[in-house]
Design brief:
The complex is a heterodimer of chains A (427) and B (290). Chain A has 427 residues and is α/β, with parallel strands linked by helices. Chain A has 17 helices and 14 strands. Helix content of chain A is 42%, strand content 17%. In chain A, strands 3-4-14-9-10-13 form a 6-stranded mixed β-sheet, sandwiched between helices. Chain A has a 4-stranded parallel β-sheet with strand order 7-6-5-8, with helices on both faces. Chain A has a two-stranded antiparallel sheet with strand order 1-2. In chain A, α2 crosses α4. Chain B is α/β, with parallel strands linked by helices and 290 residues long. Chain B has 13 helices and 8 strands. An 8-stranded parallel beta barrel of chain B has the order 1-2-3-4-5-6-7-8, surrounded by 8 helices. The chains are: A alpha/beta (427), B alpha/beta (290). Chains A and B meet through α1, α8, β11 and β12 of A and α3, α5 and β5 of B.
Amino acid sequence: MSSDSAADGKFGEYGGQYVPEALMPAIEELRDAYERYVLENEDGFVDEFRERLRQFGGRPTPLQHAEHLSERYGREVYLKREDLVHGGAHKLNNALGQVLLAKYMGKERIVAETGAGQHGTATAMAAAHLDMPCEIYMGETDIGRQRPNVFRMRINGAELNPVTAGRGTLKEAISETMRDWATNVDDTHYVVGSVVGPAPFPEMVREFQSVISEEARKQSEEQFGTLPDSVVACAGGGSNTMGAFARFVDDENVSLLAVEAGGSSLAVDEEEGVAPNSASLSTGGQGVLHGARTKVLQDEWGQIVESHSVSAGLDYAGVGPELAYLVDEDRVGAVNVGDDAALEAFHRLSQEEGIIPALESSHALAYLEEQLGPDADPDEGAREALGDRIVVNLSGRGDKDLETVIEETDKRDIPNAPDMSEFAGGL
Amino acid sequence: MSRLPEAFATDDPAFIPYLAVGDPDIASSKQYVEALVEGGADCIELGLPFSEPIAEGPTIQKAVVRSLSGGITPEAYFEFVEDLDVDVPLVCMTYYNLLFRYGADSGTKAGEGDYEAPGPRPFVKRAAEVGIDGFVIPDLPAEEADDLRAACDEFDLDLVFIVAPTTTEARLDTIREQVSGYVYVQARMGVTGAQADVSDQTAESLARIADWDVPKAVGFGISSGDHAARVVSAGADGIIVGSALVDIIADGVENDRATADVAGDLREKAHELKQGALRGARESPEAEGQ
């Protein structure tokens, strides 16, 4: 594995280490371990990681030609099937990497936060696989809307700690996990779930996830003899985005498009301290949140506002600092789609390709429909950027979202959805 | 001009209480600060609540929520400080994003019109105007503090840093270069919160920085006069107490008590802590040797 970011943990003005003093030594220890084991393959760490990704994780995942979407859009659409990774999402790539690294570091306990529950599930699975005790912090709101993953974490042996502060979502869960880490830093590793947090987390998580673009690049060349014209991925914190983009960043002919959750509106209600979206790349300002300088949804004073998305996995007020940097540098295009469009895309892929996508991934698919669909009101520049061969990173599968989809579809007018009323009241 | 040296000007140990400004409302908060000064405070850490207080335990987290729900903003905070009629140095304790964003435009890119890029200078300038003497920013390690240090130097304010039990020797050097006013010695690992006992770690932590020419104030977990005495007799120049005081305010809110009664309890608690610290100074090995 290689890294092209500066050793100081900065991406232009972004990144850095804004954490309590008590955590600084742990972060230094982690950087040292990351450089030795991950970048230099000390003690064969990378070999073991890759072998476990194959055997336990089920990698490589296919790059599947989506026949019906290709026909619909008049372009060749390929799906990078991260939904087929063990556990049902790309999250395992990072969780397995970090839990294994913690083991190499001699740590004895794992803590993690989770929003949609996919990262918590992946961490619980990786911890069980590698025999490490594991505690997961999850906001109460998210526990309510992501029950299948709550069960999976418990079944894999993780302790689940509900977080009641604030609105009880990912933002609060991250703060609470940082407090745990600050208290137990000697023997505990915090498995950060995305390309966020203090250095070296953003860079390290991107490296663990870059297996996605490494495979996609190779598969593109094997399957159609060249690189894709564009790679499209949904962006919450940005881990599947950076994973899907990392090995294409130097290929200037490949457009990279990060699709954020536009929620119900792009406005911020400062009075209420709420953004009815999670589009920090598109609408956020520079700020410092959870250990890094990045783009953040905040009010005029710098208080972090609550974000919203129909997808719990995208519902976060910040975004990875490297992604913020790549957007400022115009290397990555930041776009967004709303809740309704994402739900439509969810039903479309389910019906047309027989794949139930995560609501997160549905945002990436919805962007294709908005630009290329029969009723599109396209932006010509965007259509051109997408090109003829499009890779969409299908970050995870949608089983975990079924209750949300039933409830949200039932109360909205989603034209292509089946009648959900028969399921209303729960599965 | 910082008045922080005044807090440590005598041989008596300094008692530095912390309160979240606006908890539970501005008017009560003002009375609480005055009560702490009457009870013996030599300096006050005035918390400016931030929505993500990652270094705080449950007690102060809840205070922050109460204060934010009451509508506190950085500007309301500054007005509060300006209106205060107490004669002790004041330290602003908050998180970096509030300093970073104050006075900045909401746009994301520099070079667009009259865009004011984010940075700590406007906040520091305003703080100096209203009579703040220094800052404690728990999520700003010394490595990231150059911009704030420069602003503090420009307006002659102090910048306090925390030394934790885990701080490495190499990092102690970095902190020593940046710190002024006092060094905040974190008595144990974890987040803020009142504890039944204070850590044995304190003496060890103080010994590591004994030759620094800046006063050493110990915080995290001090909740009684006895704790204060022990920490001071271990060599501290001052004690910092937050959660044990915020608990009194929380109790007042939960039981709907009159502000004057809560202020009375705070005065009494402050007195206990200050007297404990003074007792500790008399019992310290240094005092015995005189």
